């Protein structure tokens, strides 16, 4: 028996929507959450694919997430949209606010979307990719929980604070990246701990603030940012822009709010969308070629563009109309179906 | 005899303006360039202080910079200002466009300034600090010359591409950082070369794309970005946003344009200004306190905020109304005075 189960793309969608709705999310939430898991699974991003259904169900069972919350969208200034998720998952609020963000960016040149009061579990790249499909450059940032120490610090204050960016390419998948500003993702440290493997140097400190390669000690201490003091500065910027700037929680406040409950972090998110046409004085087409020469020069020397592997996986999975997930995950998911 | 010369703050300004005007910059350019050098020198940022007068003079002597260029400011969309430096130094264009950028950010919530066709030598932190003095959060980015290889690459394609960010703090100096996305600054590698010192691992590759700690080989090869593939992705983002997005040159195009001449790089710059008041739905004061708790938590564990040293230097230098520069630099500067 294979260790993997193969699902057709439509089956994957159906499975995800059913599990979510069986556990208290309404159809709108189930769809918007499924859309993003579908995108991740299609690109073989297993960490943010169907696996996250477990967290979604656990989150709603903890009793604080509103699975039927209707987001409130506010026009908060000529170039600002605010989306109050009203204690629901972030994705429905994003979906509801996206058309207005796109419209404002195209009309004004640059616009920002603040999503507030949301539970958040998803990868950011599908969100910025969507903005690039509309012809825009886009940046997205979220805090998380205070597991990461600032450079020179001794304890967790910052989140894993991912930064995602996307650039539209004519007739091609966008140039997109999405990385945690911590050296490792929290889940990676956990995998090292379970495997009893030593962490590389420079990834974590213990509870006394001393460097450690012991994953158990790291889980009780703090992770470090990537790139030393520069990554730390970037992470603080993300705390500020996706937190106090938009009237929402820092990673530390979000962790306090969670009270150790096994639910998705509760905080805000910021997206910035920029129109290449207005920014270039109407010369976006000519400048696209300039960007393409940059990409070509990177590829020509054997380097990879950030999302290349994902796009290859997407094409393969779409062609064969199927994805694979571990049998253990599949069986666990089936126990969450009630209908 | 001391190795340093002490200048009063007013003397420093006068020396800088005189040298610039004696060498072909008009009064407006001389003032805007001096303002930024003054700010750097006042904060003991020697690398971007009076030392840069040598580069400014060399640049104008190369015959391509227009020392009398009048920048053209265009309202390019409700949230976009474009400033054409018309082949002058960037700083006068910045100064001329800043009021409009601030006005648009405060009215619309977020706004962008594209500076085009400028020669650029200056640190970015004084620019974003200025926006924070006006109560705004700000980001600035520029390309440079293609001295930096992308992650997994073998040759220079990216610039040292600095990223600067600033966050306004009530009654305090702003939270500000400004770092190169290359592991080292170009000038640092040059210092290692002159001193015959080995570079640390992971800073550079030689002309065949192989890792090297030999500074001479690094100068003929390429530098690496900070933080591996994440820093590389960030650097590519800066190429795109401060280049093709705003109809201006990439680092590679800028290097080709220079034809090896000893002048400041010629390219564009992007600044993004964000209004905490509109983004927070009018709750900027309450959220300031949230940001202050974040800073306090960082300081409390013995970590430093990015610009702390600069602010201490500034206070000291302002109090004693003096700065110090190396005697050798001072003597070299005197030879540039013609009046």
Automatic annotation (TrEMBL), chains A, B:
Family label: Belongs to the LDH2/MDH2 oxidoreductase family.
Any Pfam family the entry gives: Ldh_2
Record has Oxidoreductase as a keyword: yes
Key words of the record: Oxidoreductase
PANTHER family assigned to the protein according to its UniProt record, in alphabetical order: MALATE DEHYDROGENASE, OXIDOREDUCTASE-RELATED
Protein name from the UniProt record: Ldh family oxidoreductase
């Amino acid at each position: 028996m294979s260790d993997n189960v193969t699902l057709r793309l439509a089956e994957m969608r159906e499975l995800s929507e059913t599990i979510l709705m069986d556990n208290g999310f309404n159809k709108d939430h189930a769809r918007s959450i499924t859309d993003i898991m579908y995108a991740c699974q299609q690109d073989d991003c297993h960490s943010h694919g169907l696996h996250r259904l477990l967290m979604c169900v656990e989150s709603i069972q903890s009793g604080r997430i509103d699975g039927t919350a209707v987001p409130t969208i506010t026009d908060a200034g000529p170039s600002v949209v605010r989306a109050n998720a009203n204690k629901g998952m972030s994705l429905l609020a994003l979906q509801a606010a996206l058309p207005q963000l796109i419209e404002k960016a195209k009309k004004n040149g640059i616009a920002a979307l603040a999503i507030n009061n949301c539970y958040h579990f998803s990868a950011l790249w599908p969100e910025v990719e969507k903005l690039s499909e509309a012809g825009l450059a886009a940046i997205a940032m979220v805090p998380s929980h205070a597991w990461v120490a600032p450079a020179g610090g001794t304890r967790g204050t910052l989140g894993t604070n991912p930064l995602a960016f996307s650039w539209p390419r004519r007739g091609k998948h966008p140039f997109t990246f999405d990385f945690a500003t911590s050296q490792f993702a929290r889940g990676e440290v956990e995998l090292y701990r379970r495997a009893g493997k030593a962490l590389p140097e420079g990834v974590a400190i213990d509870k006394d603030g001393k460097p450690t390669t012991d994953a158990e000690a790291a889980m009780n201490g703090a992770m470090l940012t990537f790139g030393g003091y520069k990554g730390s500065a970037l992470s603080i910027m993300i705390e500020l822009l996706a937190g106090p700037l938009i009237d929402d929680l820092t990673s530390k406040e979000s962790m306090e709010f969670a009270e150790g409950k096994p639910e998705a972090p509760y905080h805000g998110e910021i997206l910035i969308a920029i129109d290449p046409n207005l920014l270039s004085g109407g010369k976006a087409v000519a400048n696209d070629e300039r960007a393409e020469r940059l990409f070509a020069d990177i590829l020509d020397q054997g380097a990879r563009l950030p999302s290349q592997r994902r796009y290859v996986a997407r094409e393969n999975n779409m062609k064969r109309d199927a994805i694979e997930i571990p049998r253990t995950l599949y069986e666990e998911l089936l126990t969450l179906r009630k209908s």
